[in-house]
Structures are given as structure tokens and as C-alpha cells.
Automatic annotation (TrEMBL):
Keyword Cell inner membrane: no
Keywords, alphabetical: Cell membrane, Membrane, Transmembrane, Transmembrane helix, Transport
SUPFAM superfamilies, sorted: ABC transporter involved in vitamin B12 uptake, BtuC
Compartments where found: Cell membrane
GO biological process: one example: siderophore-iron import into cell
Name of this chain's protein: Iron chelate uptake ABC transporter family permease subunit
Gene3D superfamilies: ABC transporter involved in vitamin B12 uptake, BtuC
CDD domains reported in the protein's UniProt record: TM_ABC_iron-siderophores_like
GO molecular function list: transmembrane transporter activity
Membrane protein topology class: Multi-pass membrane protein
Transmembrane segments: 93-113, 119-138, 150-172, 195-213, 234-250, 256-273, 280-303, 309-326
Amino acid sequence: MHVKMRIMSVVTTLIVGLVLMVWLGLFSYSAVPVSAMDAIAGVWSPQPDVIAHVIVQEIRLPRVLEAAIVGASLSCAGTLMQGLTRNPLASPSLFGVNAGAALGIALATTVFSTDIISSPIAAMVGGLAAWVLVMVLGGAWKMGAERGQLVLAGIAISALCGALTKASVILVEDQAASVMVWLAGSFAHASWDTWAWSSPVLASALILSLLLAPKVNLLVMGDERVKSLGVNLNVLRAAIALSVLVLVGVSVSSVGAIAFVGLIVPHIARLLVGYDHRILLPVTMLLGAVLTIGADVLSRAVIFPTETPAGAVLAIIGAPCFLYLVRQKR
């Protein structure tokens, strides 16, 4: 009973925190003044002749919603990767998925000039290629393989993808400015168009992840035990990998490369509610949404009225956390 009450308290606190963050994201640090009450009125009863309401409805609301669903998606992807590999340092950014997705987008934009429909596919293909390389080079499912091998392979593949991304930008100079802004990771360009194509796909992948949660719990017991329970490991791993690639690919293609969310949030969530993925995944999604909206608000505050990319803010927060986790896992 005590555990259930604690979990309910955590979930309630996160929901309240998410609502407050969304509200704060609607009116804070606006070049054109927007009051706290304008934020509420702009959502529930917008007046087309009130500039503050137009800003809330057309600029801030889609931005906040996109930040929330991207934060939930990247956090969920990191949790699934850690469960799949049984490695507490696994995350889309550390295992090369983010960098591979970014390379796919950069090549699609600069070399092939794809449209908005093809960009997520390019991101997923790039993320898949990078992840497969990391898993092969790191000996992910070899008996006796060290967890550090995966981390080193992830760092190497991320560096390679980053170098190739920069090379593609240099070779196609007319697209360089837009790609570099996108690579920094920012919610500033999120719009209702972005939300319209990304949210249904991300929401579907999040629902699939929640359905997979009981099976992810079984992976902790080891491959032989899972097989003895009648679970097809290959199908389970493929389903988890598909969820991760969709979550990361669509997120990266919509707002750019956002790092460290998938690494930090799962660890905080485990401290709050434990290791049961049926509870851990929803809490991770809520916490990830709160973190990314908060980072977006902070990105506007740093050098207001100029904006700092939210990806840079999250990297500043995430790098010390990563170093701490590395020291803890020695």
C-alpha cells in the first residue's frame, strides 16, 4: 500500500508539474509581452484581434506540445534501450541512434532534397544503420561481453556520423545554414504543421512501447529464462527496436538532435518508482516532457530576447550527469 501511494504521489506531482510547465511555456520570455492570463485565454477562448492570443495559439501552443511529445518519446526510447541491452548507460544519443538519424536527415536534405514525408524515413534508416553497427562492434549479445564495449562503440559511431554530417553540410553550402540550426536541436520552429505529422506517429509508438512494457521486464531475467517462458526473443527485440527507431527518427526529424534526455530521465524515474516498466515507462514519459519543456523555457531565458537552442541547454545539463553515471558504474 505504501508503494502504491508513493507511485500515485509521484504521478500526481508530475502531472501537476507538466501542466504548470505547459502554462509557463505559453507566456514566459516572449519578445511581445504575453501575460499569464493571456496564456489561458489564448488556449480556451482566443480572440483573433488580440496579438497575445494569436502568439499563444499559433506559436507557443504547438511549440509546447511538440516539446512535450518529443521529450516523452526520447525518454521512452532511452528506457527501452536500457531494458533491451541491460546496460544502464544505453541511450539514443550515446549509442549512435541520434547521430545516425541526424546523418540520415542531413544527407536527405543536402544531397537528395527530400520532402517532409521522406525525412522521418531517412532519420529512421540512419538511426538503424548506426545502431546495428554499435551493437555488432560492441558485441551486444555475446556471452561475457563487457558493457563498456557498447559505450565505446557508440561513441565511435557517433563521432563518425557527426563527421559525415558536417562533411555533407560543407559540400552543399546553400543548405548549410538551415541544417546547422536544425542540428543544434531547437523547438523554435515547431508549428501546427510539425505537430500534425509527428504527433500521430509518436503517439502510436508510445502506445506500442506501453504494450511492450511487461515483456521488457522479462529481459532482465536473461535470455534463457525468457525463452523458457515461451517468448520469441527475436520478435521482442525487433518490436522494441522498431519503437525506438520511430520515436528517435520522428523526434530528430521534427526538432533536430536533442541529446541526453534518453539517458538522464530513465535513471531519475527509477529512483522515484523502481524498475517495473509497466509503471516506469509512463513516469518516464511524463518526466521527459517536463524536462524538455523546462529546457525550452530556459533556452529563451539565457540571452533573452535571443534564443539558445534547447539542445545546447540539455547538453549542458546532461554532460555532468553522464560523467556521474559513468563513475557510479565503475
